[in-house]
Design a protein that fits this description.
By secondary structure, this protein is α/β, with parallel strands linked by helices. The chain folds into two domains: 4-170 and 214-240, 3-Layer(aba) Sandwich (Rossmann fold); 173-211 and 244-282 and 298-320, UDP-galactose 4-epimerase, domain 1, CATH 3.90.25. The chain is 44% helix and 16% strand. It is built from eleven helices and twelve strands. The relative contact order is 0.14. Bound molecules: nicotinamide-adenine-dinucleotide and 2-amino-3-ketobutyric acid. Residues 79-80, 117-119, 170-171, 182-184 line the site of 2-amino-3-ketobutyric acid.
């Protein structure tokens, strides 16, 4: 069994990736770490947990040495909207953090997973069926760190032989942990507000088309990519993947199939709208399908049914406490 270290483990992805890794590899084989303290009952409870600031190389070094780590899922980062509000901090966390992880991985021969994003593309990129290999000139600090991260991971692979692998993830929809300051967060917020209040004020315009994915598909993709035959990986950092390309209006319609009176108005935030307008409307993920058999399970309809059922269950449980 490999020993796995997860940074940024208390975030939206880590809260579901850590339990999935523990189910596959055993609770004690997965070391969850974050800046934040672990609250009792948190989804990542149930195995080893430690404080780790990825901008402090000694802390990364110490965790990898102490637990004899084989694989690092490096999730710690600032997301697009938070990064735009604090570009210097975003560079430090997203770039220095990744550099520290790669340096320690080089020394200890660890495999590294790096989550890139649709944010790695920019206004000059073809916006429909965005190819795997295309123009990447993002105009956000988040995008700059994601392209640089992809390149740095490729460099460590060919220069030092570190087995780095990555995905360009679309906006992720989930119910376990709140999203952490992204542009696609509207989708999660819309579900939560639909179930709680039957109304939502959306910060992106109704026709803003972006790629999205339900978290179980994203978690499966990360684990499958890390277990894929290295010889078949032509792109490494990072593969386009997607499950659906949707607008806020289309998501609201899908939710109305379950909550007919759901009302949405649009109060556009110019900063997040500008970020969304610089991103692809839909990705071409055929390279991932060919190289490691990527295929999502959830489309818009299946995701919407599951999200609403789970959120209703959670709301009912919270009210009965
Ligand atoms: P998140 O914001 O929910 O979680 C990030 C975690 O990193 C937080 O728990 C935070 O406390 C932690 N963190 C921040 N600074 C840190 C530091 N210096 N050291 C250690 N931990 C630190 O983010 P997420 O949605 O879980 O995303 C994880 C990764 O996936 C990020 O790289 C993000 O860019 C990428 N990604 C996410 C999405 C998405 O929709 N969630 C889409 C594309 C790519
Ligand atoms: C964000 O909106 O910043 C993230 C992403 C798509 O990278 N969800």
């Amino acid at each position: 069994m490999p020993t796995i270290l997860v940074t940024g483990a208390l975030g939206q992805i880590g809260s579901e990736l850590v339990p999935a890794l523990r189910a596959r590899h055993g609770a004690d084989s997965v070391i969850a770490t974050d800046l934040k303290a672990l609250a009792p009952g948190n989804a990542t409870d149930g195995g080893p947990y430690g404080h780790l600031d990825c901008t402090e190389v000694q802390q990364v070094h110490e965790a990898v040495r102490r637990y004899d780590v084989d694989v690092i899922y490096h999730l710690a980062a600032l997301l697009s909207a938070s990064a735009e509000a604090a570009p210097q901090l975003a560079w430090s966390v997203n770039m220095s953090g990744l550099y520290n992880v790669l340096e320690v991985a080089r020394e200890y021969r660890c495999k590294v997973f790096f989550p890139s994003s649709i944010g790695a593309f920019g206004p000059g990129t073809p916006r429909d069926a965005t190819p795997q290999v295309t123009i990447q000139r993002p105009n956000t600090i988040y995008g700059v760190t994601k392209v640089s991260g992809e390149l740095l991971c490729d460099y460590y692979a060919h220069r030092f032989g570190v087995d780095t692998r990555g995905l360009r993830l679309p906006g992720l929809v989930s119910y376990v942990a709140a999203p952490g300051g992204g542009t696609t967060d509207y989708a999660v917020e819309m579900f939560i507000h639909a179930v709680r209040y039957a109304r939502y004020s959306c910060f992106l315009a109704s026709d803003t088309r972006l790629d999205m994915m339900y978290m179980p598909d994203a978690v499966a993709a990360m684990m499958d990519l890390m277990e894929a035959d290295e010889a078949r990986l032509h792109h490494r950092n990072a593969y386009n993947i997607t499950a659906m390309s949707i607008t806020p209006a289309e998501l609201a319609d899908a939710i109305r199939q379950h909550i007919p009176g759901f009302i949405v108005d649009y109060d556009v935030d110019p900063v997040r709208q500008a970020i969304a307008d610089s991103w692809p409307r839909s990705l071409d993920d055929s390279a991932a399908r060919q190289d490691w058999n990527w295929s999502p399970r959830f489309d818009l309809k299946a995701m919407t049914s599951d999200m609403i059922e789970r959120l209703k269950d959670r709301l009912a449980a919270a009210r009965s406490r």
